Amino acid sequence: MTEAAARRTPGTPCWVSLIVHSLCTTQEFYADLFGWEFVPGPDQLGPYVRALIDGKEVAGIGQLPPDRHLPVAWTTYLATDDADVTAETIRSCGGTVGVGPLDAADAGRMAIVSDPSGAVFGIWQAAAHVGTALAGAPGTPVWNELVTSETSTVAKFYQAVFGFEPEAVVSADFDYQTLHLGGRPVASLHGVGRALPRDRGPHWMTYFEVADTDEAAARVVDLGGHVLQPPREGSSGRVATVADPEGAVFTIVRSADR
Question: DSSP class of residue 130?
C-alpha cells in the first residue's frame, strides 16, 4: 500500500468516477464490496461523493439528474497541466469534447471527452484535488485499459495528445499495446476485434485491486451485481470482469505480486 497524492505527469490516469441513477444504493454496493467510506465532493454536476479507504480518496460517485437516462459507466481521468489546451488538442486530433472544460470548485478543472473511436474519458487539471491518493490496497484503482476494436489507429491519437510511448506486443493473434510515460507503464490499449461488446463499443476499463478475486466476484453477485467474465488467470494476476447493480462494468484483480 502506498500513498499516491503527488501531482501526476500529464497523460497518467489519476482518477476514476461513476455517475449513477441511485447514489445511495451505489454507495452501499461499493461500501460492502470494497470497504469504501464517503465524504461530499464538488456538486457542480449534481450530488457527488468521494470514496475513501483509510481516509484517502480513491474514486468519485455522482448522481444523474432524474430526467437523464444515460449509460452508467466508470470514467478514467487522465492528468493534464492545462485542461483547455488539452481539450483543443483532442478536437484537433479527431476527438470530441462533450462537457467542459469547467471548474470543479477549488478541486481542479476538468472535461469529459472521447477519442476518435468514441471511447469516453476525462481530463483533470489538478488544483486542491490531485486525484487518487492511495495505491496498492484492496479497493483502489490499480490499472486502466482502453478496450477497442484495434489499437494501431487510436494509439496514434493518444500519442499525439499525451505524448505516450506505445509498446506493442508482437503477436499475430493478440492486439495489445502498453502506454508508457518517461519509460514507466501507465495504461494499455487492448484490441479485441469483433469481440467488442456491441452495447458498449470502445471503452476505458478500470481495474480495482482485491484481496481475493473469487471471493470478490461471488460478493458482487450477492450484492445484486453480475459476473460477466468469471475469475481467471491473466498476465497481471487473477482477474474477473463484473458489473454493479446499475450495469457499470469494471475488472477486479488480485495482482500477481500480492
Answer: -
The C-alpha atoms of residue 192 and residue 69 are separated, in whole angstroms, by 28
Strand partners, 181: 184
Q: pLDDT tens track of the chain, all 258 residues? A: 555 556 789 999 999 999 999 999 999 999 999 999 999 987 776 799 999 999 999 999 999 888 777 789 999 999 999 999 999 999 999 999 999 999 988 999 999 999 999 999 999 999 999 999 999 999 999 999 999 999 999 999 999 999 999 999 877 678 999 999 999 999 999 999 988 988 889 999 999 999 999 999 999 999 999 999 999 998 789 999 999 999 999 999 997 665
Q: Where does 95-184 have alpha helices with state H?
A: 152-162
